[in-house]
Write a structure and sequence with these properties.
Oligomer: single chain
Radius of gyration: 14 Å
Helix content: 25-40%
Strand order of the largest sheet: 1-5-4-3-2
């Protein structure tokens, strides 16, 4: 059974956003563009805050802070995961 920090971590909100071309390694600019398009489509207010000590991009969506993780997914495709901090 999970308790404390691990349980809280599992319950945090996360959002997955695809890139337009999932076969091309994404740049920071491509990541920000994909997030901006998603937020505009969903009617969400957003702001990019910079990066933390691990070089992970930080942002807020509707006043809630998130970290942006972009990486390699199944079958060699790229995508974005935004996780609540």
């Amino acid at each position: 059974m999970l308790f404390g920090k691990e349980m809280k971590k599992m319950l945090k909100k996360s959002i997955e956003i695809p890139y337009e071309d999932i076969s091309v390694y994404p740049t920071v600019s491509m990541t920000k563009d994909a997030i901006a398009k998603y937020c505009a489509k969903e009617g969400l207010d957003y702001e990019f805050l910079g990066v933390n000590e691990d070089e992970t991009m930080l942002m807020t969506i509707d006043g809630i802070q998130y970290e942006v993780i972009h990486g390699l997914y199944a079958r060699g495709s790229y995508g974005i995961q935004i996780r609540q901090v």
